């Protein structure tokens, strides 16, 4: 960001008692302006960026109000028909997490190209290999277990910002690719069991799972798994039943159904937060150019903070951090 090279130097404001009245007001205004200018400059210099402990901007609601949700200690499920806007929705979360240098980012993307743009910000990027996916999830599971061992030793229940233990944001674009499409039945089951364990136990250890699937069917999202996700975001679904599979049984009959979203209105979905009522929202849309720019900026910030891993861009098979 460009700044004036020579900020104006201002005379010190005169105390009211020392100055004639007509001078006091403009000088005070100028002094306040100078203070604001300095504060803005200081804020720009420190530019802490977002934090994973802060709410994440997802889009806008029907009244045009911003929708921001905290993801720490929570998980999120996104589902909806192909092209409904799940990956665009995911990008908002990944952008926030990538720019936040107080968390780690693990990305799983069977399509490679959706989350691939963020690869240089990821501690681990898993592409279309189920083997790599399972081995990454096993590593996450042992990280989770060792975090719980430390918490147990310290007789505490969950990680806190002061610990310096970074939350890990785990983003899976297309759950069904790993759990039902590639690999053997056994590998798929291993994958599903590990995801379920992370979703069920990861929250207090700072492991946040954000998973998307274009198959809102009960074989991909059994009720017992669905209910573990505190946030459920249903993008356009073809039927009330599939919308209910995402949001929970009964919402469609109460008028909250993602089947009501017109096919041509991309990015509209119903967001359900723990204990609430689904809200119809439109996901913010980051263009490819914006994603490139943000990913580059986030990678630089991570490098500067000493936490970047910036995997080799030619490595499309994923790999270790
Ligand atoms: N919030 C949005 N605002 C504007 N356009 C959007 C929005 N969401 C999606 N789109 C448009 O719809 C297209 C498809 O969106 P996206 O890739 O996110 O769908 P998807 O649900 O991930 O599909 P798939 O299941 O095939 O991966 C985007 O390329 C974009 O052009
Ligand atoms: Mg997608």
TrEMBL record:
The keyword ATP-binding applies. ATP binds at residues 80-87. Pfam families: FtsK_SpoIIIE. SUPFAM superfamilies: P-loop containing nucleoside triphosphate hydrolases (SSF52540). Residues 53-244 form the FtsK domain. It comes from the Bacteria. InterPro entries: FtsK/SpoIIIE/SftA (IPR050206), FtsK_dom (IPR002543), P-loop_NTPase (IPR027417). Keywords: ATP-binding, Nucleotide-binding. Signal peptide: none annotated. This is FtsK/SpoIIIE domain-containing protein. The lineage of its organism: Bacteria, Bacillati, Actinomycetota, Actinomycetes, Pseudonocardiales.
